[in-house]
């Protein structure tokens, strides 16, 4: 599970106009108080989000949205609140709740700022990322493309936001297995970051990680390894040895070694990644669950089933508490634990986990998402083992239809976000 997590914050400049000096003074005073309160909730939500206190972040963002509604239906601060809450919902896997907020924010910004403003590009990027997360690639692509065009026109072809937009479009292509189209976009993004920010900036490390991940998924390990190592070195120097992005780079290099069966090289990197993320984000953060899940996968590959089972169960407990019982990440860990049981012939323990994983994926992502196909295939393998070939065949047929519509390799996009 390659992890690339970056958030860019958009700062809005707010202005007030009035018909007369007196009314302007009173209006400004009221708006200033409202803005101060809005900012207070927004900043508190950002802090809660960083600590993975998502329920609290949602309450605070909802409160900020309520204050923003008072600014008027076409105020850009309202769009900012809508986009921020949509981003949180997307992160929590609440895609149905997120979409109307994204669309409303986009409409407000297009009307208030014009169709070619860079904040419109941000809203397009958010909506496209939402569609990508659900496997709706056909809907996502034109939005990512339009976002890229806006940034190039509004900010110039060498702006970091252009690089981020290139990265997102490349990630979409990568998710569909369109590697030849993804590679030049990743490379152009890397060149922009290096020129605009310098060769040792953390965003350069992110870009290197993305390009390396693309090579790794094509089994081009010799090309991927030096890029992952370079990204790790940059992050350690730019951010310090205990930053969460360092944990991400450690995890990515460990995943590369794990893919090649180099378990002895992978394990210390996984362990260090876990230590860094626990220290930086706390023991109950979803990123800790991701690290535990990845290390469990390593142990499972080596037949260390007892160690793997313990880590998967820890990851499950963290994800359920932090993300809720219906998040797609929870479905992933449930599937992985089920696979571990299946390898050991513990079919009775595996089956309810497969069923729950499949149900979560279908509810959160839709019945035609590639992750649903993977769940169907894994569950079908269990049914084959237990001589239920007719049931297995039905699931395999469903999976084949889904695969025909949208092949996938998992990627992460970079939100250009208000949150």
Question: What would you say this structure looks like, in words?
Answer:
The chain is mostly helical. The protein has a domain at 27-152: Alpha Horseshoe (Serine Threonine Protein Phosphatase 5, Tetratricopeptide repeat). The protein is built from 18 helices and two strands. Strands 1-2 form a two-stranded parallel sheet. The chain is globular and about 65 Å long. Residues 2-29 and 409-417 have low confidence and may be disordered.
Brief descriptors of the model:
419 residues, mainly alpha, Serine Threonine Protein Phosphatase 5, Tetratricopeptide repeat, two-stranded parallel ribbon, globular, disordered N terminus, disordered C terminus
What secondary-structure arrangement, pairings included, does this model have?
Elements: E1 8-9, H1 21-50, H2 54-69, H3 76-91, H4 95-113, H5 118-133, H6 137-155, H7 160-175, H8 179-197, H9 202-217, H10 221-239, H11 244-259, H12 263-281, H13 286-301, H14 305-323, H15 328-343, H16 347-365, H17 370-385, H18 389-405, E2 416-417
Helix pairs in contact: 1-2, 2-3, 3-4, 3-5, 4-5, 5-6, 6-7, 7-8, 8-9, 9-10, 9-11, 10-11, 11-12, 12-13, 13-14, 14-15, 15-16, 16-17, 17-18
